[in-house]
Amino acid sequence: MCWRNTLGLLLLVFVQRISAQIPSVKSFTSSSSSFLVDSNVRIVVDPAFANSGSPSLFGFAQTFRSDLVSVTGLNNISQVQTGDASSITAPTVFLTLGPSNSSNLTLFNGKSTVEGYSFEITEKLYTIRGVEAIGAFWGTRTFLQQVILSISGGSNPATIPTGTGEDNPGWEVRGFMLDVGRHWVETTFLADLCIYASFFKLNEFHIHASDFVPNTDILQSANWRELYTGFRFQPPSDSPVFGVVPELNESWTQEQFTTLQTTCSDHGITIIPEIDTPAHSVVITKWKPELMIAGSPDLLNITFPETIPTVKSIWNALLPWFTSSEVSIGADEYSEDLANDYITFVNDMNQYISETSGKSVRVWGTNEPSMTESISTNVTIQHWWFPGGSIPVQLMEQGYSIINSDQVFLYLDGKFSDEGQYPWSLNATLLWSGAPDGKGWAPNIFSTTDSTNNTSIDNPLLRGSIMALWNDWGNNATTPLELYYQLAQTLTQDGFENIYSILNAAAPGQNLNRATGLPAGSEVFSYDNIPSKSLPLQTNFRSVGPPYTFSFSVKPTHSDSELSSIVLFTGMDSILYLDSLSFEDAVTKIRYPLGIDLPLDTFTSVEIHATVNHTYALLNSSSEPVYWTSDLSIRGAFMQLVNMSFAAPSHIIGGSGFKGELANVSLKLGD
């Protein structure tokens, strides 16, 4: 059984004596007794290995304790200790390192992996033995999932069946990618995604950090500089490449990115940064237009003497930021007519990055038809386009390492898919039965119909896979939380849905669901009458995620000239303005008007209903919903109306400038 690539997705669950989990463990043999997880449980680290690894085994243990407190509510669990587990009196989770009793902790291709672990459970001692520290950390994820599922099944305190088992991934690379070059997001949100993903044992987060929002008409006109571009790494102001950043308030400082990498690393996830060149490069040609191919601002002129040195200078400024052993230089969708130039660029950048930093390079795999040149085989090809682009099995025959990101199986696009090419969430039918043999997808599957274009799971050059969420339509297509909803959307196969919903709701270390801890259908808060002198009123809930129903009656007394700045409700993720009942995304600062102005000096009752797919209002008990929407420009060819989903602005009732009355304010869970 492999650890498939998942963000709550792409998993096949096998029910065993130890409760089914995501992903399922490789093997487990149980006995009839149980290990009790109550407030007496201790976490002890073998002193011989406490400082092993980076993060260390002891550091992972501290993360484990914090997560265990989160999922159990047992705040009095003692701090992590080092010591010998041979003489124990209380239930103890003991973390150590060393070889497994079996020799089966290898990847499908037979290579050894540091991510494996074995576990032995008695009534008093739960031993997790990692090959290295990261292996022990994945063992703690197994423990936490078992605790969550035990509690959800009615056992409180949780119990875990005794027995022995072992586990390891089948694939070296198990990742997800987010396009932040076209959609601004803050590092705190990305950190939460890492924490969430690690709960399901993903180990890579590929960040596509530079790009532009496409509009063919504008790109090919004199107004191409008007296109939205993003370059998310902000060099210091005295850096020679400081000018490449188009919007400083939409970029990350080195300190912010370092903190992000540390948070992700502390949860077993490596960030793979991508700066995309020589195509997708409008952000660079805005800065230095002399570097572009005439008439094609998105393509760098590789043969221009200053182009490659400029790209190298960008990497030179940023390589010291990156703690990963690999980076992506993008390198897709360049002109096929310039194949030799492209190959020269990739090889030059590969050599430069390797010699400068010791890091390896990845590129997106497209078709470069050259009869004389070839990309170095020490460059990993991240395959995405088939048929029509590179053919993975042929590349592996030529000695290239491959990561599967095939668009048919693994691509999503924020909110809208051009020509219906990509689904809102990954296609369950394809993932569970889309292989040519009718069985489930795995990273060795590239074609749904032709088995000759697929390879075996033990191919030594197949590294794994990465699912991708693109943001082709820019900031106003989605809010950051909507991106999470797409990434975390569940499959609906038997045995999976119930398990995933339980684990998703309880995943520790973050609160991307903006959950309240209250059961479905609960009333979060209710205020019948709020005296004006009590406004603004602060609640205990910074933000509440859908589904919810947010009701209130409002009697504004403002002049029309004041409306645009008047805030009704404020939350961590969204703000609701009086003017046209506009929601504002707190991250991008984009407003989404409902298009309805409330009458002055008169009470209007408003019910806001939200799911992860939409938000709508009912006014004065009307049965006709009015939806909050956004109008997307699809490559400049047409406009597309899409629904927006917002978290409830639940933290502050009544802005400081609000004039009028608010009554019957209530927030309930459930739409």
Automatic annotation (TrEMBL):
SUPFAM superfamilies xrefs: (Trans)glycosidases (SSF51445), beta-N-acetylhexosaminidase-like domain (SSF55545)
Domain Beta-hexosaminidase bacterial type N-terminal: 22-147
Catalysed reactions, semicolon-separated: Hydrolysis of terminal non-reducing N-acetyl-D-hexosamine residues in N-acetyl-beta-D-hexosaminides
GO biological process, one term: carbohydrate metabolic process
Gene3D superfamilies, per the entry: Chitobiase/beta-hexosaminidase domain 2-like, Glycosidases
Keyword Hydrolase: yes
Pfam families in UniProt: Glyco_hydro_20, Glyco_hydro_20b
Keywords: Glycosidase, Hydrolase, Signal
Glycoside hydrolase family 20 catalytic domain mapped to chain residues: 173-424
A GO molecular function held by the record: beta-N-acetylhexosaminidase activity
Extent of the signal sequence: 1-20
Enzyme class: hydrolase
Active-site residue list: 333
EC number: 3.2.1.52
Family under the similarity heading: Belongs to the glycosyl hydrolase 20 family.
Name assigned to this protein: beta-N-acetylhexosaminidase
Organism listed in the record: Rhodocollybia butyracea
Classification of source organism: Eukaryota, Fungi, Dikarya, Basidiomycota, Agaricomycotina
